[in-house]
Structures are given as structure tokens and as C-alpha cells.
Amino acid sequence: AGTYTVRLIASNAAGAGAPATRTITVTAGGPPPGGGAGAITVGASAQSVSRTAATAVSVPRPAGLVDGDVLIVSITADDAPSMGSVPAGWSPVVNPLSMGSSARLFVYYRVVAAAAAEPASYTWTLGTAVKWNAAVTAFSGVDNGTPFDTAASTAVQTGRVASLAVPGVTTVTPGALLVGGVGPNDDAVSVTAPAGWTESVESGGAQVTELAWQARPTAGATGTASWGISPAEQVAGWLRALRPA
Known about the structure:
seven-stranded antiparallel sheet, globular, six-stranded antiparallel sheet, mainly beta
């Protein structure tokens, strides 16, 4: 158990890239993420982007879905459009988060009843044509009747900031999984997940949208989660806990 910094450097014959670092927290006891009774497993992610103005937001189905999986999608749209229509079976995780009139972050979830019958992609329709970015992650082992263990917590900064602090929540079920993310108003900023969190997907181009998670083996207050944004930009973020089955 403890908190550690991991560092990765990719290299080839042309040289080495810049190091990428993440902080991970190992907690003693309780089910590990990805295995054990009552554990929620983080599955595959998928992403899509439109660098030209469009109303249709089409997001591919993640690979390897099984019955009972819960999908969470994050959509960051330029110029803060309304949401015209939502595909069948999807519900809001949070209310839309607006960075003034500059951009808007939408987050939805879906319980997969029959994986074999899932479409190849899901399509949302924005009220006006704008640039957008979307990412989705699958989670297994979630309580399908009551997928969320907590209400949502959100934060929005309409001025340019280098970090966004989202207030924590209090989980009630051991083994809950915190999920959250941010949508900066930019097409190329770099997002750093909060300490102790793992990023499942960060999609760039047109706008940036990101999803991350943190296992909570024991119930209780989670504390504030702070995302890093580089360079500084307007940003909206959220977090909420999934309940294990």
C-alpha cells in the first residue's frame, strides 16, 4: 500500500519522447479494481471527433461489451450548443456544464441489457452544427438497478485556469468506483488526472474530452479531485461514484 509516481518514456531509433508521469495509489484490503467479488472492472474505451461543424455526434461502441455493462460517454462541444436528441437508452449523468457561450460538456450513461443487440455506434444530435469531441468507457460489475452510489459533483471555470478542483462526494457502498472527467474549451490541451486516479481515455482534436476513475475499496468521503490543464483554459468537470453489483 502507498502512493507512487510511475514514469514512462517511449523511444525508437530517432530518439526518446518526453516522459509521461502518473501518480497511483495502492490501498490495502478490499477488492482490487478489475477483479474480486463486488469489484467494478474498467473495460475498453472508444472515441470520435469532428473537426468541422456538424450536428451528429456518432460514438463507436467499445470493444468487448458484455450483458450488464454500463457505458459512460463524455461529449465536449464548441460554442455551447443545446442537445437536440439523445439515443434511446441513454440518460444524463450530470446536467450539461456550460463554459459561458464558449463550450459545453455533456455526460450520459447507458446500461447494456443485451450486448449482442447493441448497435455499432450511438448518435446524439446537437441543436446547432459545431466542432465536437466524444469518448466512451465501459464498466463491468455495476449494479444495473441503481448504477450510481452518489449524486454528481461538478465545477466550471469560465476563466482560463491551470487546474480544476471538483468537490468530492461520500460513497456509501464499499467497492464503489469514482468516475469523472473534464472538457476543456480547446482542441489540444493536455489533461492530467487527479492524484490516485487512472485516466481511461483522453480524446483531442476539435475539443478535448476526458474520462478517469478511482477505486474506493471502503465507503466514505472521497475528498476533492483536481485535474491539471495545460496550457490554462476554460474547463468544466464532474465526478460521481458507480455502485458495485
